[in-house]
Design goal:
The chain has 99 residues and is of the alpha/beta class. It contains 4 helices and 6 strands. The relative contact order is 0.18.
Length: 99
């Protein structure tokens, strides 16, 4: 999966996935991000360039949230309206920190 990663500080990570988070990309996305999350306390997931998230993509995001609940905080930024509608429909807007 295409994504941009930035480490603005030793314990911070910003990930900007591009395109779709679905059955074809979710496993790679999860693996690549998890490899970067060691010792991270501030994780930003920037969804500006994400146009679609499938149920498996939602599971991956929820797993990131669970991991970060144990080691720091996760913020989701720049959620497109169609993705935000999905988050609201399934209640993710209540359990994820969306800025």
């Amino acid at each position: 999966m295409n994504m941009l990663k930035e480490k603005p500080a030793d314990n911070a990570l910003v990930v900007k996935p591009i395109g779709r988070i679905d059955v074809n990309t979710a496993a790679e996305f999860e693996h690549e991000v998890n490899a970067e999350l060691e010792n991270i306390v501030d994780f930003v997931l920037d969804l500006d360039k994400v146009v679609y998230i499938s149920s498996i993509g939602l599971r991956v995001i929820l797993e990131f949230q669970k991991r970060m609940d144990n080691q720091g905080k996760m913020v989701i930024k720049n959620v497109r309206p169609e993705i935000m509608e999905l988050f609201e429909l399934i209640g993710f807007d209540k359990i994820l920190n969306i800025a």
